[in-house]
């Protein structure tokens, strides 16, 4: 469990995480409506060198951006609830990119085997608690590093 005290703290966390990411990495973002999934994704994208405005992909489902060395794919699967639709997710996970998925539970069948899942819990207006779950050695290492800074 990692405690986030403010919006600025969330940005610092995103920057620290970005420093550990490699091509092909996938992050799952869980948490209630308004928990901060899109806000975190915007901080992460900026930390990866995206200069274009990162807006919520709720309507488009997938938006892709160019970062300084990697592409940044930002997905929001909220609208895919119950649809079982495969939009070709695999191709996004395998190219030279980092992918962040809001509401990943709605594409459970299409998720990769390794990922870092971040569950955001609202504590107060600006405080959040982050629960990290790693699948795979690479993400276990990242989780350890993030929990001990
Ligand atoms: N520490 C914090 N971390 C993240 N967001 C915060 C924090 N403190 C305040 N906020 C505010 O909480 C709101 C989070 O909204 P955001 O759209 O990011 O949530 P979301 O989880 O993507 O929601 P949705 O499920 O609708 O996509 C924003 O207005 C943001 O400014
Ligand atoms: Mg969102």
TrEMBL record:
Tagged with keyword RNA-binding: no
Lineage, broadest ranks: Bacteria, Bacillati, Bacillota, Bacilli, Bacillales
The protein, known as: tRNA threonylcarbamoyladenosine biosynthesis protein TsaE
Alphabetized Gene3D superfamilies for the sequence: P-loop containing nucleotide triphosphate hydrolases
Subcellular location as annotated: Cytoplasm
A Pfam family annotated for this UniProt entry: TsaE
An annotated GO cellular component: cytoplasm
Organism: Staphylococcus microti
Keywords: ATP-binding, Cytoplasm, Magnesium, Metal-binding, Nucleotide-binding, tRNA processing
Name of the encoding gene: ydiB
Family: Belongs to the TsaE family.
GO biological process, one term: tRNA threonylcarbamoyladenosine modification
GO molecular function, one term: metal ion binding
Domain of life assignment: Bacteria
